[in-house]
Design brief:
Elements: H1 8-19, H2 24-27, E1 51-54, E2 60-65, E3 71-78, H3 92-99, H4 111-118, E4 122-127, E5 132-139, H5 143-156, H6 161-180, H7 183-195, H8 209-214, H9 217-227, E6 233-239, H10 243-253, E7 277-284, E8 289-296, H11 307-318, H12 325-331, E9 338-345, E10 353-361, H13 367-384, H14 388-405, H15 409-421, H16 428-437, H17 441-450, E11 457-465
Parallel strand pairs: 2-6, 7-11
Antiparallel strand pairs: 1-2, 3-5, 3-6, 4-5, 8-10, 8-11, 9-10
Helix pairs in contact: 1-14, 3-6, 3-9, 11-17, 12-13, 13-17
């Protein structure tokens, strides 16, 4: 069971929605605007602040009470992803995620999913560059059983070699469906490999096909034993629960897992870029596609006066909502050069981040013309800036997104887990809020002029070839995409 891997653009947009419920204290820092944002409450009246605990073996527990419905979400977060892999074993973090459904000391292959379904729940898992996550949403009275099941497979995942040999073919088919059959996904892989020199972000999360073909069961077992240790994991529980009761259950089922040290992660240094980099990719496709990726600073500390805050606001001004600058100028403007456009910024991660501008050229327009038009929009902000009213409108839309997020216990659990992975505190939302609403037009204008030169840029261009050149593929022996873990 798999979610599509989150893109830089979707993650940045989701983060904006998650960070900005305009609290009254933060609003006082916002300059007046023509149409000021509405003033919502910071949280729904029924919400309580999250609580964080450390179990006796070093595992983290985070509990978010929300008593509006008799349901609960349990999420297991492991601070391990493709960034922790070694060359030659790309994709192994994702393969471990698959094999976590293939048996334990107590359960046979596939039995975990059957047990959760019998509890009236649903479950899934996901792997990214920075982390791996597993979740179950169940009726709250079934939470104890879900915790017992998750603790068992975290502590004692085991399976025969035959299960691996079958499942690695599923992973390879997943790569074919989501990457090799998708020209833009292949283009993105090549662009990432060109952007980064030292960072493990240069490898795809799903892995290179050659590495998947050469992977062994012992490669997977070794990665699981190395990284699936209590001090490298967090349990997040959100829903109609009492924190102290959840803590007692967590100690009962997770606290007895033997403590082990988290392996030391070796540092690396990304070399300075010296000049523009270009990727030209030919593939059967109906339309061209252009992706511009600029190396930019990432957020290192919530309390720093970082350019990261202004870059995040710049991304929202350019794209993220209807009526964005890119959409108005390049898609709906009188000199239409694009069928679609987008922008995004990662803000934070365990590796370096980039700022992306993407688009599909309109009929009769070249990729080069769209590339120039995208860069011109950033240059225009660098020269002329943005207005107070423009920022106010963006923040109003963030408020609406935040309101919807608070209606979902799943979204609350996912936010708390992703923040834990990055080492952020429980009050990260409020502190991000204070920084973001304090961003001024002058700061946005400054970053637009500082980080978008040739020495930060990697351009990837998809050059369409006739669809008749597409190579035929054999029919997959596996189920539909929704059945792939």
């Amino acid at each position: 069971m798999k979610h599509p891997l989150p893109s830089r653009r979707s993650r940045a947009t989701a983060l904006l929605a998650a960070c900005l419920a305009l609290a009254p204290a933060a609003q006082a820092q916002q300059p007046p605007a023509t149409d000021p944002p509405a003033t919502p409450s910071a949280l729904p009246a029924s919400a309580q602040p999250p609580r964080q605990f450390r179990l006796s073996n070093g595992m983290t527990l985070i509990v978010q009470p929300d008593h509006r419905a008799p349901t609960a979400v349990q999420m297991l977060w492991v601070r391990v992803g493709s960034v922790d892999e070694l060359d030659g074993t790309s994709g192994v973090a994702h393969v471990v995620e698959h094999m976590m459904f293939k048996g334990s000391a107590l359960l046979k292959p596939g039995e975990f999913s059957r047990r959760v379904a019998a509890l009236g729940g649903r479950e899934n898992a996901f792997t990214t560059r920075d982390y791996t996550g597993y979740y179950q949403q169940i009726p709250v009275e079934r939470l104890e059983e879900a915790m017992r099941l998750e603790a068992d497979r975290f502590a004692s995942n085991q399976w025969p070699d035959d299960e691996f040999r079958r499942e690695i073919e599923v992973v390879k088919e997943e790569r074919r469906m989501r990457t090799e059959d998708q020209p833009r996904a292949l283009l993105g892989e090549q662009q990432n490999a060109a952007i980064f020199d030292a960072s493990p972000y240069r490898r795809p999360v799903v892995g290179w096909m050659s590495d998947l073909s050469a992977m062994t069961p012992d490669d997977v077992r070794a990665f699981y034993r190395r990284w699936y240790v209590p001090a490298n994991a967090a349990i997040v529980v959100a829903g109609d629960v009492d924190p102290q009761q959840v803590l007692a259950l967590a100690e009962r089922y997770y606290g007895g897992i033997p403590a082990r040290a988290v392996p030391v992660r070796k540092p690396y240094t990304e070399l300075p870029q010296r000049g523009i980099r270009r990727i030209e990719f030919k593939a059967p496709a109906e339309q061209a596609y252009v992706s511009l990726a600029f190396r930019v600073p990432q957020l290192q500390n919530l309390d720093e006066d970082s350019d990261a805050w202004a870059l995040l606001v710049l991304a929202a001004v350019l794209d993220g909502y209807n009526g964005s600058r890119l959409d108005r100028a390049l898609v709906r403007g009188p000199e239409r050069v694009a069928d679609s456009v987008g922008a995004g910024y990662g803000l934070y991660g365990r590796g370096p981040q980039v700022f992306s501008l993407v688009g599909v050229p309109a009929a009769g327009k070249t990729s080069e013309a769209l590339e120039a038009a995208l860069r011109a929009q950033v240059a225009r902000i660098a020269q002329d800036g943005v207005s107070e009213a423009e920022l106010a409108r963006v923040k109003t839309q963030w408020v609406a997104s935040e309101t919807y997020k608070r209606d979902s216990v799943m979204a609350q659990a996912r936010e708390l887990g992703s923040q834990w992975v990055q080492g952020l505190p429980l009050d990260a939302d409020a502190r991000m809020l204070a920084r973001l609403v304090a961003v001024t037009p002058a700061q946005v204008q400054a970053v637009a002029g500082r980080y978008f030169g040739d020495d930060q840029l990697t351009v990837a261009t998809l050059r369409p070839q006739p669809m008749s050149q597409r190579e035929p593929r054999s029919r997959s022996p596996f189920g539909p995409a929704g059945e792939l873990r």
